[in-house]
Description:
The protein is an all-alpha fold. Helix content is 86%, strand content 0%. It has helices at residues 15-98, 104-162, 167-186. The two termini are 31 Å apart.
Amino acid sequence: MCQAFPAIFGLAQGAQSALFAASLGLTAANSFAQRSAAQANARQTYETALIANQSAEDAKRLKQQALEEQKSETEKSTAQNVFAKNIERLMASRAILATERAGTTINLLLMDQERQAANYRESINQSLESARRQHLRNIQATESEFANRRNQMQSNVNNAYNQIPSLANTLLDVASTGLSSYTGIRGLEF
Length: 190
């Protein structure tokens, strides 16, 4: 006589064997579905990180271009101001000489005019140097921001891949659940 479901591991034929097999099958299907879902999530996280990394690179490049343009405009504007101040100084010096006076007073006026022009040039040079240092700090900040974003994306990818249970872990989970079901159905006869 043939039974609908054969005996499994010493369980009685029929209902107990069928329940055990169904439980084991569902556990295996569930475990492999969870593993597959974790793999899909990790792949999606990786692909998202690639897109985000490209976006971060583009943002860094655009910020650095803007900083370079700002630095260039500052230098050009400063050069124009220095040129204008030099013209003013020359005109003032020529005006003093045009009075056709001589002596200590004229020399003092010319020296004062040259001192003022030198102070202005030094002030401009200090401002330019300060702007250059700030520019370098801003460039370093964009590099640091990019590195932080890239590291965070890499961390997200690593975390996603670490959530994937290994094949051995999945099989051990199925076996453990199967053993629990078997001992539950069979009862501890040890």
